[in-house]
Design goal:
eight-stranded antiparallel sheet, alpha+beta, 2 domains, 213 residues, Glucose Permease (Domain IIA), three-stranded antiparallel sheet
């Protein structure tokens, strides 16, 4: 579990425990309902911050998913005046929210952009929502990842710094409470997934690329 989960979840556990103690003495329906509410809420919050181990594919040219969730869009567009292919992943509050590196390489750019908080599944979220954009460059070329805030997700966390070296599938950050992650790759990359597929961070192969020459 991510350590932040304890800061969010343990107070709720303590509240639920305290309410249970009061209920045992007073047997009030209100206290029973409140106890159940906070118990369920604490379970959901602690579950949100889970951080399971993942088996990273050994396929040498694989681009792995940086996020858990459902693929909501595949598109062709431009990024910084060059053509790219974009894949968008919607992360519900029930998904694991730890983000991982799609390829091995070094972080060549990190750019945090202020913006709106549209529903993360909307197309405009990729452009207008608050987001952290980082670029990884390695033997496979360049992959750009956008951590995008959503309607509920107002906190983007990025644990790495410019110049850091990453292993494929390495943990890099998270987005709290529902969000979206975009992956931008070269037009030569062949996707191995389609809209509607569910993917897992660090273990699902999105597509394949070739070594940079």
């Amino acid at each position: 579990m991510i350590k932040d989960g304890y800061w969010y979840g343990l107070p709720l556990v303590l509240i639920a425990g305290g309410l249970m103690g009061f209920w045992l003495h007073q047997r009030s329906l209100f206290l029973l309902v409140a106890t159940i509410f906070f118990a369920i809420l604490s379970i959901l919050v602690l579950n949100f911050f889970r951080d399971p181990e993942r088996a990273v594919p050994a396929e040498p040219y694989a681009i792995v998913s940086p996020a858990d969730g459902q693929i909501v869009q595949l598109a062709e567009e431009e990024f910084e005046s060059r053509p790219v292919r974009r894949l968008s992943i919607f992360m519900s509050p029930l998904d694991v929210h730890v983000n991982r590196a799609p390829i091995a390489g070094s972080i060549m750019a990190v750019n945090y952009k202020k913006g709106t908080f549209r529903v993360a599944s909307q197309d405009l979220a990729s452009i207008e929502n608050e987001q952290n954009v980082f670029t990884v460059e390695g033997e496979q070329g360049v992959v750009v990842v956008k951590q995008i805030a959503g309607l509920l997700a107002r906190r983007i966390v990025f644990w790495k710094r410019l110049g850091d070296s990453l292993a494929r599938g390495e943990r890099v950050g998270m987005i709290k409470f529902g969000s979206r992650v975009d992956v931008l790759v070269a037009p030569t990359v062949e996707w191995r997934v389609k809209v509607g597929d569910r993917v897992r961070a660090g273990s699902s192969i999105l597509g394949t690329t070739t070594p940079q020459t």
